[in-house]
């Protein structure tokens, strides 16, 4: 298995049909998709169980016994994955039809531990705005440069699976990606950039990540603390600790 795509799902019944359908359009077929239902209160799990019987790609459907947050849920997917490379996708997003083929060709040439690629921000109106990673990352020379510029979004990256050995997500409902990305980059020996928009981020105003709250900001601080502790880069600032 070349790619494993990990898709955490929570109350996604209104979006999951499109997400699974778009995956059938991939021109590259050596991949599996791991859907993890995070204790949804709607019909997400039932829809996934039904769809898995008809799609042409290999699927694994898992379910948390209770809502545990996206960090824990993604970790479950990583543990169950069998692919040489890992990708992450939110349950309301989708990849471009040529995404996996382009990544496969790129990886065959560069043998990267991590690949950064571009994405689109997609709206209900059909409008798309380019989210460019390549423009800035093409000037990176060290892992520290990549850490400084990384947007903190796992779906805009592809990882060699062995890079995840020993890495776990913090139990957060926000900013869980930001916690592990610097750790992953620090472990990578070969990082490359694919200047092509492969991923579509569906922008919903009501989504958890787009709704400001004190808890979200605290999650960012907890994420920062987690990264500092795992990378042993120094004592976490006491001022931040008091806020938490």
UniProtKB/TrEMBL annotation:
Glycosyltransferase 2-like domain boundaries: 4-128
Superkingdom of source: Bacteria
Any Pfam family the entry gives: Glycos_transf_2
Family annotation (InterPro entries): Glyco_trans_2-like, Nucleotide-diphossugar_trans
Protein name: Glycosyltransferase family 2 protein
Keywords annotated in UniProt: Transferase
CDD domains with a match to the protein in the record: Glyco_tranf_GTA_type (cd00761)
GO molecular function: hexosyltransferase activity
Transmembrane segments annotated in the record for this chain: none
Organism: Bacteroides stercorirosoris
SUPFAM superfamilies in the cross-refs: Nucleotide-diphospho-sugar transferases
């Amino acid at each position: 298995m070349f790619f494993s795509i990990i898709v955490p799902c929570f109350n996604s019944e209104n979006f999951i049909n499109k997400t699974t359908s778009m995956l059938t359009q991939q021109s590259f077929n050596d991949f599996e998709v791991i859907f993890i239902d995070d204790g949804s209160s709607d019909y997400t799990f039932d829809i996934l169980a039904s769809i898995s019987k008809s799609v042409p790609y290999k699927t694994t459907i898992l379910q948390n016994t209770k809502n545990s947050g996206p960090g824990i849920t993604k970790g479950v997917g990583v543990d169950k994955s069998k692919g040489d490379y890992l990708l992450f996708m939110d349950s309301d997003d989708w990849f471009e039809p040529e995404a996996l083929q382009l990544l496969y060709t790129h990886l065959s040439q560069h043998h990267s531990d991590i690949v950064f690629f571009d994405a689109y921000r997609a709206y209900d109106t059909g409008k798309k705005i380019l989210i460019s990673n390549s423009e800035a990352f093409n000037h990176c020379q060290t892992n520290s440069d990549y850490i400084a510029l990384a947007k903190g979004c796992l779906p805009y990256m592809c990882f060699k699976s062995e890079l995840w050995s020993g890495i776990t997500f913090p139990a957060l409902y926000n900013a869980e990606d930001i916690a592990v990305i610097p750790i992953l980059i620090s472990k990578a020996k070969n990082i490359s950039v694919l200047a092509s928009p492969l991923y579509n981020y569906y922008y919903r105003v009501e989504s958890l990540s787009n709704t400001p709250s004190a808890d979200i900001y605290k999650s960012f601080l907890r994420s920062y603390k987690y990264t500092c502790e795992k990378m042993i880069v120094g004592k976490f600032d006491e001022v931040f600790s008091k806020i938490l």
